[in-house]
Amino acid sequence: MPKTVILLKTPSESSESQGDPYVAELASLGYAPLIVPTIEHTLVHIDDLADIIHRGPDRFDGVIITSARSAEAWSKAVTTIVVENPSEQWVGGGESNKPPFSIAVT
């Protein structure tokens, strides 16, 4: 009978389709891993981010996304803008007014 090992972690989103690497490694060593999520991730300051984005690209010089949760926050803020301002046209004014947008997720 395998020994049970408790993992205090939030399962990654990719763990459902690809298998959690911790679970896979422990299982390969003959353990029965049990994941217990102990942290809940909550997006905060979405309204503040939406306000900054809505004011336009002339108010900031670049955007750097450093994690999947940061990308989720950006997406939610943009969705908030679109829902709250359905009559506004979202047409870019050319490349010259668009700040650099980088994604640096490890």
Structural write-up:
- This protein is of the alpha/beta class.
- The chain folds into 2 domains: 3-36, no CATH class; 46-103, no CATH class.
- It contains 4 helices and 4 strands.
- The chain has helices at residues 15-18, 21-28, 46-55, 68-84; strands at 3-8, 31-36, 63-65, 101-103.
- The strands form 2 sheets. A two-stranded parallel ribbon has the order 1-2. Strands 3-4 form a two-stranded parallel ribbon.
- Strand 3, helix 4 (68-84) and strand 4 form a beta-alpha-beta unit.
- Helix 3 (46-55) packs across helix 4 (68-84).
- Residues 92-96 have low confidence and may be disordered.
What would a concise description of this structure say?
It contains 4 helices and 4 strands, in the order E-H-H-E-H-E-H-E.
Low-confidence stretches: 92-96
Global shape: elongated
Order of helices and strands, N to C? Answer: EHHEHEHE
Structural class: alpha/beta
Number of helices, counting only DSSP H or I runs of 4 residues or more: 4
